[in-house]
Specification:
single chain; 489 residues; mainly alpha; Serine Threonine Protein Phosphatase 5, Tetratricopeptide repeat; two-stranded antiparallel ribbon; two-stranded antiparallel sheet
Amino acid sequence: MVAARVRHRIHGCRAGLWHDRPMRWLIRVALLAALVTTTTPAEAGKRRPPLIVAVDKGDGAKVAKLLKRAKPRDLDAFDDAPGSPTAGLRAIEVAARRGDAALVDALLAAGATATARALEAAAEGGQLAIATRLVERGAPRADLALTAAAKAGHADVVAALLPAARAADRYFNLDQVLEFAVYFPPRPSATVVELLLRERANPGIGWGPGAHTVLHMAVSKGALDVMAALLAAGAPVDAEDKDGFTPLLGAVNGARLDAVRALLAAKADPRRRTRRGDTAMTLIADGADATFVPLLETLLAAQVPIDHATPDGVTALMVAARAGNRAWVDVLLAHGAAVAARTTAGEVALDAALACAIDASPWGPGVVRDCHGDVARALLAGAKPPLGRADAHERSTLARAIMSGDDALVARLLALGVRDASVDDRGANPYHYAARYGSPAMVTALAAAKLGGAAALGALDDADQTPLAIARTTGKPGVADALVAAGAR
């Protein structure tokens, strides 16, 4: 009797709660939350298949136990668990990636599919036995696996997969495999390359939009053994890429001395030019240091003129001078580079050394750059050196020497008889330049040489400023005193 009354009250309480609309919604939300929180990863489709977990751990006993009761769909199931180390793989692919031949055999015996991805993983890992077994069981895309083995440098796997790759695809491209074998590895395998070449891969095949041949690529990696194999197979030694670089020019540009020697021995033409007109000599001088000296000597021994110039007449000496590379200028001069050589525009190496430019500043006379006084002095060390010409702003060689701030350079030009007091495109003469960029010693030397006379000392530039006014404005009292001592007013 008592139990019946309790049940009646509970039922009434439940009924009352259910007929209360807000309470009814609250109950529904609570039930939904409970359903979501109690859903297991397996129910959500995110649990790693037990077979893949066992294979990933290399647990042969567990794998054997699972295979006894496995269904066909279990054998080829994917690991769909987000963040899993084997996400997106089947069990046989995991086994192949591990290089576990026993697990691969067990899975195949149980009916697992020999997949292309499993074959590629085995080939990339150099697992010849696994790759062979998978091919026997009909794994597709042997061409992809072959390429993976070639990139990884596994010659035995490449040899084993070649017949299957050709049988699977009548249009199989062995040339592309050679490209991949040379391009992708940091250190290509000469054994793989030789094998592919024996199978008649094209030793002159090009790569991508840059049109680099496999020989270009071997040179860029310093792979001398691969270079030797390609050259022996008839690779075109003077093939050009899209920028006109031959393998030899690429080797020179990369300062690869051994590669340069090997290519010269293979009769590469050392006088070729790039599309931009660079020669082997100008490529050497661009940023060269002392380590490039043997490279220079190697080219000179190959009868390349040291003044071999671009179509515009630019020589290696000019390139080094423009870069301000005094050490390399000295090396080139010691080997007989011509100081008097001129470009088609009439410029000499001295003009390149004094290619002065000014970075304007609102607070002062500006910062001078690309004005290499020490290099210019080295170029002027001879008895009768060429003295250059006015630049695009009509600045004389003497004006640019003053811009360099090198007192010894200015003294050397005056000693060579330079007395050029001409004005630039803004009406400034050498005294105006000395007032901005020079020193008291320069002013004294210019005045002692009677450069331009009193008229030059008091001349106005296009801004109506005299040299003395400029020196005072730019805060150079020493220069101003020297100008006054020279007769400026």
